[in-house]
Amino acid sequence: MPPAKKRPRAYDVTRTRTAVLAQFAHVRDAVRGLTAEQLALPGLGEWTVRELAAHLIMALERASRAMELPAPRGPKPEVSLLEWPFSTTGGSAGIADHTRELAEGRPDLDALYEETSARFAELVPADAGDRLVTTRSGTMRLGDFLVTRTVELVVHTDDLHRATGLDIPYDRQALAACTRLLADALADRAPGASVEVRVPPFAVVQCIGGPKHTRGTPPNVVETDPLTWIRLATGRTGWAEALEAAQVSASGERADLAPLLPLMG
User: Fold this and answer.
1) What is the rounded CA–CA span in Å between residue 189 and residue 261?
2) Residue 262: its H or E element
3) Torsions phi, psi of 28, nearest 5?
4) Rounded-to-integer distance, Cα 29 and Cα 169, Å
């Protein structure tokens, strides 16, 4: 009999919306201070830092555009929050083309960020968490989609940091939501209770089928910090690389997450 899946974690829509705006403001402050030389540096993959900075606005703009459209028909969303991380592969060519066009067409990044933030604040309410919206992955609850915006923002904030060396702050709520969603997605992908994954101070989940642990110190434990976990879950860092660098500790014969990572493409 397969392990029973736990009830999905609940997120407060108002706090999530506030966290999205706060993290976007941190990124805007960092981008505002970039020099022309820094903007021309390699950013992410084939993108320059300028293109990465332009792409970051899509974290908010996709929500704004979704709210401008009529609510999708149907009583239930097509994609749940825990399904979203696994639905993000594909469409990379179109995203890359749009990002380059945006970076070329809107050279004043600060003005672009100001416009994006204002549109989001006006169009995306804090009291409509159950409203369905159309996303690239399928229809979702607005409250769930806002949680995914914290993932996009936090992941690309880290990309921007690693490309430029800038120390960009992380909004605590945004970092917590991103960490928890990716940890819960791991537990959903590999249900069970033989391995405990700890990402202090934000998340502890059990996963992988096998002997169930009930008391005392679990025999199989993985522990890491939030940013390392996010990099592992999104493929920015490999499992073996993180172990070798002592960025993650893994004890027990089942404490090997390599076959399950990354969660997002």
Assistant:
1) 10
2) none
3) -60, -45
4) 10
Calculate the alpha carbon distances from 109 to 26, 31, 52, 55, 56 in Å. 14, 8, 11, 11, 11
First to last CA, the chain: 30
Number of H helices, E strands in the chain: 10, 8
Omega cis (within 30) before 262: yes
Q: What are the Cα distances from residue 58, in Å, to 51, 135, 149, 155?
A: 12, 12, 9, 13
Give me the tens of pLDDT residue by residue for the chain, a chain 265 residues long. 455 556 789 999 999 999 999 999 999 999 999 999 999 999 999 999 999 999 999 999 999 999 999 999 888 999 999 999 999 876 566 788 889 999 999 999 999 999 999 999 999 999 999 999 999 999 999 999 999 999 999 999 999 999 999 999 999 999 999 999 999 999 999 999 999 999 999 999 999 987 665 555 678 999 999 999 999 999 999 999 999 999 999 999 999 999 999 999 7
DSSP H helices, the chain, are: 13-32, 36-39, 49-56, 58-68, 92-105, 109-123, 142-164, 172-189, 226-233, 239-244
Contact 147, 80 (CB under 8 A): no
CA dihedral 125, 233, 54, 175 (to 10 degrees): 50
| Ramachandran area for residue 156 (φ above 0: left; ψ -120 to 50: alpha; else beta) | alpha
Q: Which residues pair with 135 in a beta bridge?
A: 138
Distance CA 138, CA 135 (A): 5
SS3 223: strand
233 contacts 158 by C-beta, under 8 angstroms = no
